[in-house]
């Protein structure tokens, strides 16, 4: 309210700020979008970094996660999402609860010209050049009392009217076909740049050896599915589309910090179900890597996916409009 009434003001930073956020608790696809934007800016020769609060990390204050070449933290110190982004994009990145201070320090440490603000929609202290909200299509088309209400009753951080602050909206249909958004929700998108995107499964990657395998090599394979993400529905849907047998699964809460207890549970379930392999998400994989010795007798892979825009050229023009 104070920001809306201009009593509190956002502070400008000496870099272009692209905020990626949502109005729900997890599961919309922020991290794949952050990766997409970072890699797109890299292609055009921009020096880009990522700044996150570092949700779920076991540290406080400002931490430089990477300078683009070397990784300085463990996943427990940075949080799984930013760690995943660093490994995927090899770009400068930092975590800090105070985004204004964190952005200034990241610029000082790495001389980045662009900062992608991961999960920045509700953090309004920092002024942004692009304010992008990503929303899951299934959320926009559904009607569930325990989802479509504000916390703590539902999963919404803000009401639908919050879309008015965004200038760009990405509708993520994940692995589903495109559906029409109901008029009563589509009205909140008036005057915004609207894009649709989906996930594409690329390959399976051995989390220890980093060897990559074609999707076809896993067809019909009986795997133990391990997931600790906000919305495992799309992950399970993706695996079923790649013809992996997903009947055996262990579903943990979002941002699960794995310990020896969970690792032993995975081992027990793997042998009890006579599974051929363990298949997990890329975000879970970065946390399970440290248990490579405990899992050395198990083949464990993550499903590598990427976000694909249905009209990538339009999104490129929108993102780089200031530079075209």
Mean pLDDT score, rounded? 93
| Largest sheet entry | 13 strands, mixed
Distance between the termini: 35 Å
**Can you tell me the CATH superfamily of the largest domain?**
P-loop containing nucleotide triphosphate hydrolases
Element-level helix/strand string: EHEEHHEHEEHEHEEEHEHEHEH
CATH fold category name of the largest domain: Rossmann fold
User: What is the count of structural domains?
Assistant: 2
Discrete helix count = 10
Question: What would the principal axes of the Cα set say about the shape?
Answer: globular
- The chain-level structural class is alpha/beta
The total strand number stands at: 13
Low-confidence parts, pLDDT < 50 over ≥5 residues? none
Helix content: 25-40%
CATH class of the largest domain: Alpha Beta
Q: What is the strand content?
A: 15-25%
| CA radius of gyration | 20 Å
CATH architecture title of the largest domain: 3-Layer(aba) Sandwich
């Amino acid at each position: 309210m104070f920001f809306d009434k201009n009593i509190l003001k956002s502070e400008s930073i000496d870099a272009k700020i692209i905020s990626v956020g949502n109005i729900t608790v997890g599961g919309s696809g922020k991290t794949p979008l952050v990766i997409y934007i970072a890699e797109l800016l890299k292609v055009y020769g921009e020096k880009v970094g990522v700044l996150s609060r570092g949700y779920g990390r076991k540290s406080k204050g400002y931490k430089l996660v990477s300078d683009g070449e070397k990784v300085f933290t463990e996943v427990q110190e940075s949080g799984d999402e930013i760690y995943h982004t660093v490994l995927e994009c090899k770009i400068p990145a930092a975590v800090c609860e105070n985004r204004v201070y964190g952005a200034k320090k990241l610029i000082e440490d790495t001389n980045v010209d662009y900062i992608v603000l991961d999960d920045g929609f509700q953090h309004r202290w920092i002024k942004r050049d692009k304010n992008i909200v990503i929303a899951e299509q299934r959320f926009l088309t559904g009607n569930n009392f325990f989802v479509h209400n504000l916390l703590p009753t539902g999963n919404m951080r803000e009401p639908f009217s919050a879309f008015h602050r965004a200038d760009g909206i990405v509708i993520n249909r994940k692995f589903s076909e495109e559906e029409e958004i109901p008029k009563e929700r589509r009205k909140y998108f008036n005057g915004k740049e609207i894009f649709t995107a989906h996930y594409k499964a690329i390959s399976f990657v051995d989390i220890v050896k980093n060897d990559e395998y074609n999707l076809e090599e896993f067809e019909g394979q009986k795997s133990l599915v391990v997931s600790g993400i906000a919305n495992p529905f799309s992950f399970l849907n993706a695996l079923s589309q790649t013809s992996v047998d997903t009947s055996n699964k262990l579903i943990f809460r979002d941002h699960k910090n794995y310990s020896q207890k969970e690792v032993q549970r995975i081992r027990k379930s793997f042998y009890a179900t006579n599974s051929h392999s363990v298949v997990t998400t890329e975000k879970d994989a970065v946390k399970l890597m440290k248990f490579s010795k405990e899992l050395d007798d198990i083949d464990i892979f993550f499903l590598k996916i990427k976000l694909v825009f249905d009209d990538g050229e339009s999104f490129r023009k929108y993102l780089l409009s200031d530079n075209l």
